[in-house]
Amino acid sequence: MRKMSDVMTNVMQNLQKHTQMESTSNYCTHTTLVFGKEVTKRHQMIMFDGKEVCPVCEIERDTEEFEKREAYRIKDAEKRAEYLILESKSLFKDKTLINSGFKNYETKDIEEITNKKKAIKAVEQYRAGEVFNTFLQGDPGVGKSHLAMSIIRTMNETDNQDRSCLFIDIDEMLSKVRDSFNNRESIYTEQYFIQLLSRVDFLVLDDLGAETGSTNTEKTASDYTMRILKGIADSRQDKPTIFTSNLNREALGRMYDAKTVSRLLRNTYVIKFEDTTDKRIKNIEF
Ligand SMILES: [Zn+2]
Fold first, then answer.
1. Residue 38 sits in which domain range?
2. Which three-class secondary structure state does DSSP give residue 184?
């Protein structure tokens, strides 16, 4: 910066000569450190727009403002990129989930009303800065994924919109990882997902325990699944994760290993569906 302002000083001095900018008899004293030594320079003040100013001070102020504006611009772009992760990096099996939010979560029975309230409560706590996991548990089709998506959508849209959120359907993720074993071009490696799922502020892991090959019949499947889950359990100790599963904690413990599951589901707020039936099956009435 110092060099730049020296150059600009010369420019100003030349400009002054040519345009005969009116110098005054006053000087502005600048002290800088050069190799640890204080060096004092005096700059003649000039009349500019009817005001007496020091040209060097003016340039330094402009440079500072420019740098500040640039820093804001970069920060805005970074914030925007974080905000867009939910839309650009999420993996859905059911694509309609992209549009799910509290607004279009229909409540017909007491349990649905209670669970929607519980999910909203979780959002309030998250927005207040609390760190905990949320576990939505119940039969398929009761609306667990919809509520999970509603939670992170709200986290994404509110406040400064600078939280990174991600929705991952576990089966979709694992099938991409499996594909990457035979496809060297694929970016969707085990490492890619561990990094992505570790870095986001809010993560939904949808349908834990429902993935293909999860019954231990496929040895490699359970190996890389375990590596990914362990990686996430390690890296997300201080970040909220929202899980959904058809299985309860005990069944998940039997399926993976009890230690990893208890680390994944530690400090967990549970939202349970016991009475709600499959919302995707519509009763036809005549
Ligand atoms: Zn000055």
1. 2-80
2. coil
